[in-house]
Design goal:
Layout (H helix, E strand, L loop, with lengths): L1 H17 L2 H6 L6 H11 L1 E5 L4 H4 L2 E2 L2 E2 L7 H4 L4 H4 L13 H11 L3 E7 L26 H12 L2 E7 L31 H19 L5 E5 L8 H14 L4 E2 L41 E4 L17 H13 L3 E6 L9 H17 L17 E6 L2 E6 L7 E5 L4 E6 L2 E5 L2 E3 L3 E5 L10 E7 L2
Parallel strand pairs: 1-4, 1-9, 4-5, 5-6, 6-7, 8-9
Antiparallel strand pairs: 2-3, 10-11, 11-17, 12-16, 13-14, 13-17, 15-16
Helix pairs in contact: 7-8, 7-12, 9-10, 11-12
This protein binds ligand FHN.
Length: 455
């Protein structure tokens, strides 16, 4: 009797521990839209990872070097499907270490990771049952990258998110009008449509997206791309958004799930209602704040995928200022890494992550959970605000030791963010608010003055 009882208890424990992840995800309380977006709005800073078979190619073929992003190697270096297949067949990045990747993101101050689970080349980085063109069946690697990275994120407490390309250059039904004769003027040409695309959508794409949502625990964001092909319709976008939220009700989805934007514009600008939770300006930061959720994605050099020929690196100072600029306008910053074909982050990227981590460790209070500034951009930098506190992020330190701010700011107390013990002298005049600061920037490249506001 006792043995039977023990067996029942054991069975119950096993069921509770190893129940399908989907059941775990969907049994969670359904949040309101604001609750659902909360972690993402507070996070501000995430890591984009562009990794695939193109990371072996590095944007080079013989004497040719692909212009722009090296993740477009298949298109730009004129590979046929058969020629290109040899790269997934040699994908074996023995130096891939999911824990080390996540640690680097965390140390940089990033709160979420978006991995290209399948980019335009069509090669899937997880164990897909829909297709054999994946890391387990085609590649010698035989390790499920999505599984390892999602588990490392969970272990280290950061959100795991998936990028998925709608266009698929390996799939005969989903190449859009981009391949093999890419022509940007055809982006919105509705006459160029593959009548078999709906079959790809129903039998390939949707099931693949379903796998990502059912088998890898909570997915923070589903980040679509390749939405511009004429074959993909707004009806599919709305259907897909619903499908995703039915599986994981609290997941966030970017605006490229639908057809609300013109060409490559970041924000929706077509009339009508569109699915998607946030806009996606790419390689640009809007001039002013935008009154809806948005995330600027950007490369550290000029390419998303690994490209040793591209040495046009943005400086760490520039990247820190971009983070502040984005937060001061109410957005998130999704900063890209293009690991190589062995699984290593480029040294230049690691240096920049380190520098950003040093800065965010000291100044994170002025970034995470902060919102857009109510004041116009000052000449010397940017403002962010949170809980009755205004943060002045100073890019150009005043040579005369006096910081000039908007006259409407009413101060209770001002200090340097890195030295809360020493109160700074302030003087309100009819034209501006003046704050006495040290002659030398205490925390270059961006020093922050914390201003507690009077009620
Ligand atoms: O074509 C892609 C590109 O390779 C890269 O993935 C970026 C990231 O946002 N999105 C596309 C262009 O919009």
């Amino acid at each position: 009797m006792k043995t039977l009882r023990n067996m029942c208890l054991l069975l119950l424990a096993v069921m509770l521990n190893s129940g399908p992840i989907m059941a775990q995800a969907s049994s969670k309380k359904k949040l309101s839209d604001d609750e659902r977006m909360e972690w993402w709005r507070d996070s501000k800073f995430g890591m984009f990872i562009h990794w695939g078979a193109y990371s072996i190619i590095g944007g080079e073929r013989g004497t040719k070097i692909a212009g722009g992003g090296a993740e477009w190697a298949m298109d730009k270096l004129d590979y046929t499907i058969e020629e290109y297949e040899k790269y997934p067949e040699m994908f074996n990045p023995q130096l891939f270490d999911a824990d080390a990747w996540v640690t680097m993101a965390k140390n940089a101050g990033m709160k979420y990771i978006v991995l290209t689970t399948k980019h335009h080349e069509g090669f899937a980085l997880w164990d897909s049952k829909v297709s054999k063109y994946d890391v387990m069946d085609t590649a010698p690697f035989k390790r499920d990258v999505v599984k390892e990275l999602s588990e490392a994120c969970k272990k280290q407490g950061i959100k795991f998110c998936v990028y998925y390309s709608i266009v698929d250059w390996h799939h005969p039904q989903a190449q859009g009008n981009l391949y093999p004769n890419y022509n940007i003027s055809q982006h919105d040409d509705p006459s160029v449509v593959n009548p078999e695309f709906p079959e790809y959508y129903e039998k390939f794409m949707k099931p693949q997206v379903g796998e990502l949502l059912k088998n890898y625990g909570d997915i923070g964001v589903v980040w679509f791309d390749g939405d511009w092909i004429s074959d993909y319709t707004t009806e599919m976008g709305k259907d897909l958004y619903k499908y995703i939220r039915d599986i994981q009700p609290n997941t966030i989805v970017n605006n490229r799930v639908d057809k609300g934007r013109t060409g490559m514009d970041g924000m929706n600008n077509h009339p009508g209602e569109f699915a998607g939770d946030f806009g996606t300006p790419e390689q640009e930061i809007p001039d002013t704040g935008i009154d809806s959720d948005w995330e600027a994605c950007m490369t550290m050099n000029g390419t998303w995928g690994y490209k040793p020929d591209d040495n046009n690196w943005k400086s760490s100072t520039d990247l820190i200022e971009k983070l502040v600029d984005i937060v001061s306008k109410g957005g998130n910053f999704l900063l890209n890494i293009g690991p190589d074909g062995y699984g290593r982050f480029p040294a230049q990227s690691i240096r920049r992550l380190d520098a950003m981590g040093q800065w965010t460790k000291k100044n994170g209070e002025a970034i995470y959970g902060a919102s857009a500034s109510p004041y116009e951009k000052p000449k010397w930098g940017r403002y962010t605000q949170k809980d009755g506190v205004l943060y002045a992020h100073i890019f150009d330190w005043p040579k005369d030791g006096t910081l000039k701010l908007n006259k409407d700011i009413k101060v209770k107390k001002a200090t340097l963010l890195i030295d809360p013990t020493k109160e700074l002298k302030t003087l309100g005049t009819s034209r501006e608010l003046l704050i006495d600061v040290p002659m030398i920037a205490p925390d270059a490249p961006v020093s922050v003055v914390k201003i507690e506001l009077a009620k």
